[in-house]
């Protein structure tokens, strides 16, 4: 996957350049206000472009309360579309001096999954990057992005969560909150991040979640941020409360609690969020002792589906590229 990702990134640049000269040379290309799409057919490129713009608008309203301004440079999207392709995607961008630029996005899967899961997931990454202008904790980023996927994909993450929790792959919350990078065993970060984001969003809505993450980023005090936004003493206590909730089959929160939360504008994402509740009534064994924190330093030495790349900006300053935010393909395995 890593090799493939590098190929995709290179191809995206080449095709975006070529598309200005010869739009039909390699694949069909389509340009919208904020995206340049390369896809196998013109109809697909247009459909993906239209959906990308719609998600960019609707999801920004959902998360931030209003649409994003137009980007100064469009985000290239390269789409591999085939019925048998596992759904997945990667988005990379660069933060520098509070700005975000250098977008690239690769997406793959069936047309249906690209439109209903991969695209909204990857677009949410770009919305968070545009809003925060700095990297988010991976659990908070991937977790939130997964909440906008199709219920089928979210149910799959929930099944994976149960599997991870019952096979010793759970990540203790204090460690997960401290993680700045993807751990070597990356899938539990997605399943747990998704479940926790869902738990918090069902209790406070998307806007409060965004405010909570922003507070944690600026204060660098996640315990305080949990306390201020969710009246939770800290990550360890939140882990206990969350685990009890998972054991009970993830019941919907009491109506009074939801009513007290800031209201979300009605929209496709809100209705999606309410459709997935109570998806797993199965009993859950106790969370095993958290494994030793996966050493972040060890990540680079292990095979990973995430690519790290160093970039150099025009003025010659070395810049640490943000590793792509990636939706693991359905058939991807970290090892
Ligand atoms: Zn992602």
Write up this protein.
This protein has 335 residues and is an alpha/beta fold. The chain has two domains: 1-134 and 305-335, no CATH class; 136-296, no CATH class. The chain is 50% helix and 13% strand. It contains twelve helices and eight strands. It has helices at 2-21, 42-64, 111-132, 138-146, 151-166, 173-178, 187-219, 222-230, 235-247, 255-260, 268-274, 296-299, and strands spanning 28-31, 35-39, 75-81, 88-96, 99-109, 310-312, 318-320, 325-327. The strands form two sheets. It has a six-stranded mixed β-sheet with strand order 1-2-3-5-4-8, sandwiched between helices. A two-stranded antiparallel ribbon has the order 6-7. A hairpin with a 5-residue loop joins strand 6 (310-312) and strand 7. Helix 2 (42-64) packs across helix 3 (111-132). The longest helix is centred in the middle third of the chain and has 33 residues, at 187-219. It starts with a helix and ends in an 8-residue tail after the last strand. Mean pLDDT is 77; it is low at 1-26, 262-286, 288-323 and 331-335. Zinc ion (ZN) binds next to helix 3, helix 4 and strand 8. Residues 121, 125, 142, 145, 325-327 line the site of zinc ion.
